[in-house]
């Protein structure tokens, strides 16, 4: 892979959230500060929302990895299309709570006993609910009911909700007034600015062991921002492919021409569609073959399909070259190792 070529200890742009690569833009730092504030308060709900790929899960992972507080027992839920009863079952499972039965009363009793035991040990529970926009409103209400568990006028469990923008609509519904009154802070993540994109990329490169800030030019960073709209997940996908391209082409630095070429190859991946309205429908349409307008429309579709196929062929050729290069590289290593063994 490109790691050794560019001197990395590991891949700097993996998709899996890794607290080590956490980059604190102003919006991300504010959200993290709200989460920490919520922990210090020990009560109420903290809500963090943002578009897909803006780093909500990474913030949660970063928070958990830096808790440094043995008095907080945390659990994170990531499967959230749950009924109220299923939510309670998952809470019981994630906290490893023993229950005597499967009814709602049994689950609630088991959770309450567990929370009281934590309180007696000088501890408290923290529940982080990821992808919370998938929760039905009645399940969000069940979370509020869990927050009613108190002892000595202190809440026994605290919840953080992380979700896409749809979560705001759920919380703002008229029947969610009681839940809204329990929210002590909220933050909304935004895509990265041009300046933050440059800092984000350089931060990840440095964390992976590379100090070559000249790998991308100033214009290159601006172009990456333009292609990815500043969304961290898209940046990771795009820059990872750029580095692979640079390795295959044996580039010491990645310029605007390389960025545009890779962006063209990845157009379908970055936009999520073929951008051909005529291909969007699965329903058969009637074609009038003697219509000049229709004929030209069909020709345009075929041209775009041809371009897509051509791009895919080019990608396969590049991957074949990559495999060939890796085989040659391994062959050289094997030859050098054999020669060294014979010399000894």
UniProtKB/TrEMBL annotation:
<dbReference type="InterPro" id="IPR017466">
    <property type="entry name" value="XrtA-assoc_ATPase-like"/>
</dbReference>
<dbReference type="InterPro" id="IPR027417">
    <property type="entry name" value="P-loop_NTPase"/>
</dbReference>
<feature type="domain" description="AAA+ ATPase">
    <location>
        <begin position="42"/>
        <end position="205"/>
    </location>
</feature>
<dbReference type="Pfam" id="PF13401">
    <property type="entry name" value="AAA_22"/>
</dbReference>
<dbReference type="InterPro" id="IPR003593">
    <property type="entry name" value="AAA+_ATPase"/>
</dbReference>
<dbReference type="InterPro" id="IPR052026">
    <property type="entry name" value="ExeA_AAA_ATPase_DNA-bind"/>
</dbReference>
<dbReference type="GO" id="GO:0016887">
    <property type="term" value="F:ATP hydrolysis activity"/>
</dbReference>
<protein>
    <submittedName>
        <fullName>Type II secretion system protein A</fullName>
    </submittedName>
</protein>
<dbReference type="InterPro" id="IPR049945">
    <property type="entry name" value="AAA_22"/>
</dbReference>
């Amino acid at each position: 892979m490109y790691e050794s070529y560019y001197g990395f200890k590991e891949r700097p742009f993996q998709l899996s959230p890794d607290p080590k690569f956490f980059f604190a833009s102003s919006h991300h730092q504010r959200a993290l500060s709200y989460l920490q504030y919520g922990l210090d308060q020990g009560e109420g709900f903290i809500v963090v929302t943002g578009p897909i790929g803006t780093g909500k899960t990474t913030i949660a992972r970063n928070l958990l990895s830096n808790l440094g507080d043995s008095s907080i027992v945390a659990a994170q839920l990531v499967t959230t299309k749950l009924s109220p009863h299923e939510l309670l079952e998952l809470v019981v499972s994630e906290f490893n709570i023993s229950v005597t039965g499967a009814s709602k009363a049994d689950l609630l009793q088991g959770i309450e006993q567990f929370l009281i035991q934590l309180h007696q040990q000088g501890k408290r529970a923290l529940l982080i609910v990821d992808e919370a926009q998938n929760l039905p409103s009645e399940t969000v209400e069940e979370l509020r009911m869990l927050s009613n568990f108190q002892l000595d006028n202190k809440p026994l469990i605290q919840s953080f909700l992380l979700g896409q923008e749809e979560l705001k609509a759920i919380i703002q519904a008229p029947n969610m007034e009681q839940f809204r009154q329990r929210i002590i802070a909220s933050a909304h993540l935004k895509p990265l600015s041009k300046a933050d994109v440059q800092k984000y990329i350089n931060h990840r490169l440095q964390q992976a062991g590379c100090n070559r800030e000249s790998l991308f030019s100033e214009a290159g960073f601006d172009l990456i921002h333009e292609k990815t709209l500043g969304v961290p997940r898209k940046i990771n996908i795009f820059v990872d492919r750029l580095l692979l391209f640079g390795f295959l082409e044996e580039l010491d630095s990645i310029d605007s021409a390389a960025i545009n070429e890779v962006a063209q190859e990845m157009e379908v991946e970055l936009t999520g569609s073929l951008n051909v309205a005529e291909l969007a429908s699965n329903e058969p349409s009637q074609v009038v073959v003697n219509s000049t307008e229709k004929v030209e429309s069909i020709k345009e579709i075929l041209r775009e399909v041809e371009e897509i196929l051509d791009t895919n062929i080019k990608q396969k050729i590049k991957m074949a070259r990559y495999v060939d290069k890796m085989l040659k590289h391994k062959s050289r290593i094997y030859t050098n190792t054999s020669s060294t063994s014979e010399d000894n």
